[in-house]
Amino acid sequence: MHRSSYTKFIMCVLLAVFMLVMAGCSSTQQTPDPGIEDGTYVATFTTDNSMFHVSEANEDRGILTVSDGKMMIHVSLQSKKIVNLYPGLAEDAAKDGAELLEPTTDTVIYSDGYEDEVYGFDVPVPALDEEFDLALLGAKGNWYDHKVKVTDPVPGDDIKAVINGTDTESEVADSAKASDLDIADGEHSAEVTLEGGSGKATITSPAVIKVSGDSYTAVIEWSSPHYDYMLVDGEKYLPVNEDGNSVFEIPVMYFDKPMPVIADTTAMSQPHEIEYTLTFDSSSVK
Questions:
Q1: Parallel, antiparallel, or unpaired for β 115-125 and 104-109?
Q2: Same domain, 153 and 54
Q3: pLDDT tens digits for 60-85?
Q4: Which of 20, 65, 100, 189 could pair covalently with 206 via S-S, beta carbons 3.0-4.6 A apart?
Q5: How distant is the alpha carbon of residue 147 from its chain centre?
């Protein structure tokens, strides 16, 4: 073998070894640390366009799942008009063989109790707090480029609880879950404080508290006959009386911490939902 041929042979061998080493390094490279522990979170999903967003019922929130350092967020959109998503640019989504994100059919519940079926998607999240490309396919068959961002993860899987401000561990630690209180079955009473609205409405305090096992129910009597329903944790409750001031029986989720509720009043020119909080005092239970 000529010297020049031998040199070329050695160089080829070294190049092949180098490529094998680099391939091995690439295959064993770990997934970048997302900066968040494995688990399930409620996170905010925002976009660059008002026509492409999470359903108003979920207020820009989706369920973020983190597993082995990889992140995926499930979002329920506002309708069924977006039929596919693609994690990248529209020009790549339109190519043959592109792996599109297929929709699921989700049911969303609005604050007034109305239910709607919309499309939802599992979207890979490359990083938190950073914009990334997400193309969408409309019902007319056209692809569009968009930028989206995932932020503010909160541990848990209950979007409504996070919206109502009842799902953080620190808040729960400062309150007593109703089911954790050692109260005998039967009817009791407890002082309850109302906050919110214009300040004109009041409720009767102490309120009757009905206990049956782990079920705690409060009888809430308003100072007005014009409340036609209440919403507690997304559930709708109607008055239990026909005459006099409006009376409702609603669940008590916890004591010693403001519990968000919504009450709809017909006293105005049009029905109007008003946000309130109720705080039940565990030390006053009799």
A1: antiparallel
A2: yes
A3: 999 999 998 899 999 999 999 999 99
A4: 189
A5: 20
Its domain, for residue 253, covers 176-284
Which one, of 222, 231, 225, 230, lies nearest residue 202 by Cα?
222
Q: Do both 276 and 207 map to the same domain?
A: yes
Please check whether residues 145 and 244 belong to one and the same domain: no
Tokens 């006293």 found at: 267
Same domain, 155 and 185: no
Would residue 4 count as lying in a domain? no
Q: How many domains does the chain have?
A: 2
For residues 250 and 140, membership in a common domain is answered with no
Looking at the structure, do residues 157 and 57 belong to the same domain, yes or no?
A: yes
